[in-house]
């Protein structure tokens, strides 16, 4: 039995230290998925905390039918999708203020000792264009693409996380890639 399975078993028996080990082991991957889905570090951190609370509260429902991280990603994905649905209802001005704050934060970062301003600017422009294109995708397409391309999950694992068929996952990823190509076609590298 590997470490994660042992920690899950201990955590299901009420061992908080074992649950802490699970969080330490998986938190970076969970955060990365959430960040890619919501596009904001602060929101991703809050959603990660909410995800881990949900995981702890529902740990007894994990039956081991899938890998534990697949189950956690499913919880994280649905937590993020709920957040995104609620965020769509927020006033437009609040979103503009958030984007302005994000832009000021990026500009305020100090350059590294080996950085070249022209490359840093190009990298920032590429990141902004990519993030903007990713944000244009539907929640389901963005989730499937992030889980595949950023997290490296298999189609079967993504289907487990998103509770859909493998063919649906393949279709969503194909359509997301095509849309990203369209959104980024004028980008000069």
Q: What do these coordinates show?
A:
This protein folds into two domains: 1-90, RNA polymerase sigma factor, region 2, helix turn helix motif (Rna Polymerase Sigma Factor, Chain: A), CATH 1.10.1740; 110-189, Arc Repressor Mutant, subunit A. The chain has helices at residues 3-12, 16-38, 41-57, 68-87, 92-108, 117-136, 139-150, 155-162, 166-183. It contains nine helices and no strands. It starts with a helix and ends in a 6-residue tail after the last helix. The chain is globular and about 55 Å long. The protein has 189 residues and is an all-alpha fold.
When the domains are counted, the total is 2
Largest beta-sheet characterization: none
Shape category: globular
Give the uncertain stretches in residue-range form.
Answer: 92-96, 104-109
Features:
single chain, 189 residues, mainly alpha, Rna Polymerase Sigma Factor, Chain: A, Arc Repressor Mutant, subunit A, 2 domains, 9 helices, 0% strand
Question: Can I get a quick summary?
Answer:
This protein has 189 residues and is mostly helical. The chain has nine helices and no strands.
């Amino acid at each position: 039995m590997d470490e994660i399975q042992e920690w899950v078993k201990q955590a299901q028996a009420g061992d908080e230290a074992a649950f802490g080990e699970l969080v330490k082991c998986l938190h970076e991957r969970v955060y990365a998925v959430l960040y890619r889905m919501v596009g904001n570090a602060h929101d991703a951190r809050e959603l990660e905390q909410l995800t881990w609370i949900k995981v702890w509260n529902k740990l007894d429902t994990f039956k081991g039918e899938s890998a534990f991280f697949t189950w956690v990603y499913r919880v994280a994905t649905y937590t993020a999708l709920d957040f995104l649905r609620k965020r769509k209802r927020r006033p437009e001005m609040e979103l503009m203020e958030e984007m302005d704050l994000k832009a000021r934060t990026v500009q305020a970062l100090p350059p590294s000792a080996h950085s070249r301003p022209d490359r840093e600017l190009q990298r920032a422009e590429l990141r902004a264009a990519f993030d903007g294109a990713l944000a244009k995708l539907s929640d389901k397409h963005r989730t499937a693409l992030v889980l595949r391309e950023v997290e490296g999950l298999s189609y079967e694992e993504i289907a487990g996380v998103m509770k859909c068929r493998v063919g649906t996952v393949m279709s969503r990823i194909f359509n997301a890639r095509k849309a990203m190509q369209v959104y980024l076609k004028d980008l000069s590298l």
